[in-house]
Every structure is written in C-alpha cells, then in structure tokens.
Amino acid sequence: MRLKYCEDDGGRAAADYKGIAKDCVVRAISIATQQPYTQVYQDFMSLMRAAPYYMWHKKTKSDQLILNPSPRNGISHELMSKYLESRGFTYVALLPAMPLSLESINILNLPSSAVLFEINDNHLTVIRNHTLYDHANIQVLPNQKIAAYWDKKKNISSHWVHTDDMREKYKKNRKK
User: Fold this and answer.
1) Using CA atoms, how far apart are residues 64 and 28, in angstroms rounded to an integer?
2) Residue 143: which residues within 8 A CB-CB, separation 6 or more?
3) DSSP state, residue 3
4) Residue range 7-65, pLDDT digits in tens
5) 154-175 burial string, b = 16+ CB within 10 Å, else e?
6) In angstroms, rounded to a whole number, what is the distance separating the alpha carbons of residues 101 and 39?
7) How far is the C-alpha of 57 from the C-alpha of 122, rounded, in Å?
8) How many domains does the chain have?
9) Parent domain of 143
C-alpha cells in the first residue's frame, strides 16, 4: 500500500531557484524543519566552504569530480550528518532496508511529526502523517527502499534497527 503524496519542493521555486539540481537534502530539510529553503541552502554553502575537500566532493556518474562546492551538486553524507546532528536529529540505519510503503512506516512505529528518510542511500525525502513530501512521487519508481531515517525522537536507543525483528513484532500485534 502506498503512502499519500504531497508535491513539495521545500520552497525552492518560491526562493526563485531554477534549473535542475541535486538538492534533495536542502529541500527535505527545509520541509522537515519548516525553515526557508534559502536559509538551509546558505547553511550548507557555509559548511561546504569551511569543510575539507573530502567532506563535500561528490562523484558524478561519469566518475568526474565536481569541484564547485554547492548544495546544487549534492551534499555528502558526512556534511548532511553533521548538519542534522547539530539540530537534534538522530540517525537510524535499517538492516535490511525496507520497501518504501505505508506498511513499512507502520512497522517502524514512527511519530506523526516529520521524519527524514534516506532512500536507496542516494535520496533524502520527508514523511509526515503517513504522507510523502517530495518534488516527485518517488514511490512509483521500482525498488525504492528505506535505508535509514533521521528523527528527533528522544528515546532512540540504537543507531541500528533490525527490521526483521520489527516485522515479526508488528505481525503479532496485528493478529491480536
């Protein structure tokens, strides 16, 4: 079963940014934190300029290095982690990854507040109240898996979640 979908670019168009960009991190964080797109973009520009090269460079499909530090070209996991952790988010990796679906969200028993999800280790999106907020409905693409999520829950005890155990617990609770 699919999640509801709400098209949301995180305020990118309203901030008058144009063209194609690999800025899903900026868009998703803007949506989840309700900060203006421009503010999050500028925060990452500052982080990228201050960080060592290895922390912001990204490889393109042709394996060429992009040498211009800009959130438009993508943001490394290291910088994204640093930014989110400084804002009180906790990283939780899922082993194994789970399909992007309503059932997976129910199994994870996440709050109704905005949670950031890493999809296939290369895309960041937001799910709030069982609704996917993104510039495109990525759940219609094949093989979309939730690899990890970022949450502001205070009671996360582990940074690794074994989803097979959670699935079993969920199935038992549904039978009751």
Assistant:
1) 26
2) 120
3) P
4) 999 999 999 988 888 899 999 999 999 999 999 999 999 988 887 765 655 555 444 44
5) eeeeeeebebeebeeebeeeee
6) 31
7) 14
8) 1
9) 4-175
